[in-house]
Design goal:
single chain, about 150 residues, alpha+beta
């Protein structure tokens, strides 16, 4: 994440209309509205596009593992990972908004044994994750977001 991006820079919204609308509500309310999706807590993640270099924003459901946040690169069970995942592999420095707090974080894909430990809790949080994994041959990645 570029050092000058501190949440005040305008991020490019998701091309998905509902994600863009939720991100706008979340950000414009200062993190007091739009903080859940289907009853699951959500965060905003700003990241740098690997080709464009532009700051982009998405909304992601999250679980917790200690102080860290866990997000699932499910892409709705698609055989392809979400674009945000490809971008954070290229540049793992991200900015998060979790409710009213904004802070920098570093993204890291969990190794298989760590994913196996946290996966049941993530499926409990959002049961569709289990359905998504069952419906694709792609191993759906789990990403740990650790505060910088």
């Amino acid at each position: 994440m570029t050092a000058e991006h501190d949440g005040s820079t305008e991020a490019i919204p998701s091309p998905s209309d509902w994600v863009a609308r939720q991100a706008e509500l979340y950000e414009s309310s200062g993190g007091t509205e739009g903080t859940t999706q289907l009853g699951v807590p959500c965060l905003l993640m700003d990241y740098v596009g690997r080709r464009s270099g532009a700051v982009r924003r998405t909304v992601l459901m999250y679980g917790r593992d200690g102080e860290d946040y866990l997000v699932v690169a499910s892409n709705g069970g698609s055989d392809r990972p979400p674009l945000w995942y490809l971008n954070i592999q290229a540049d793992p420095e991200v900015e998060l908004r979790v409710e009213t707090e904004r802070f920098g974080a570093v993204a890291a894909t969990l190794p298989a044994e760590e994913k196996a430990r946290v996966w049941p809790g993530l499926v409990e949080l959002f049961p569709r994750y289990g359905e998504y994994q069952a419906g694709t041959e792609r191993d759906i990645s789990v990403v740990r977001l650790t505060r910088r």
